[in-house]
Amino acid sequence: MTLPIDEQRLWNRHMTMAQIGATPKGGVNRQALSPEDVRARQLLTAWARELGFTVSTDEVGNLFVRREGTDSNTAPVLTGSHLDSQPTGGKFDGAYGVLAGFEALQAIHETGVSTKRPLEVVAWVNEEGSRFQPGCTGSLIFSGKARLDDLLANEDPAGMKFGDALQDSLNALSDIERRPTGFEVDTYIEAHIEQGPRLEAEGLPIGIVTGIQGMHRYSVEVIGDEAHAGTAPLKTRKDALKAAAEMVAPLRRRWPMRRTQCASRLAASRSHQARRILCQAGYFSPSISATRYKRPLIA
């Protein structure tokens, strides 16, 4: 049987969802548990209820859309992804997995086909981790790899606690049924937009994931001395920013690009935050991550 997937309907839903948190460059800023994230969840909920699907959420705010099977006691087949984004995120990142799963659910529903197992689409909470750490919060708690109580006090850059933002989100979605956190799943599959150029460059419409990258992350503090940038002699300077910049080439040699992907994210120094343009940086705090799905290459 060929399912009547409606490509235009899926595209239209993407474009509607992308209006929530839209940025001038065509992406989205829909960070976890923000008002924009809540609106995205409310929109998905409205679409689901129009089709008669049930919607539920758990204590961490994961959102589930369910089409019942003939045996409601069996473990469901689950698909989905996330609706939150980076501050300058792409409109298909995460959202594609949720909306593609929803389109498949609707197409199955429209055929009138009965399935023994329930079919569910999930939107995980805080996958990106751009606002609250750690990322993948919803799936970590769902799978038992983390405890909600241990994360409630975590703060975003503005000082908002994760627990408070979560409660605000749950209050805004108070008309949605609450379910226990974590349940048996028969099968999980996730569709995702490619975050690199390889499929497009090779003219391939789809690829199958064969491995998931592991990641090593390092937080580094480079401590120097602040000094007047115009009068301090070069040979006496202890410039934290210069020292941090000089780390890049050795990192590339340690983790060559042919063997692993290595990315570094550098946070602004304290002197930069104060905008003291004639003062050399006395402190710089870079974070470094190396990713690869073969452990020996990032050890």
Automatic annotation (TrEMBL):
The keyword GTP-binding does not apply. The keyword Lipid metabolism does not apply. Keywords: Hydrolase. InterPro entries: Amidase_Cbmase (IPR010158), Bact_exopeptidase_dim_dom (IPR036264), Peptidase_M20 (IPR002933). GO terms for molecular function: hydrolase activity, acting on carbon-nitrogen (but not peptide) bonds, in linear amidines. Transmembrane segments: none annotated. Signal peptide: none annotated. Pfam families: Peptidase_M20 (PF01546). Belongs to the peptidase M20 family. This is Peptidase M20 dimerisation domain-containing protein. It comes from Entotheonella factor.
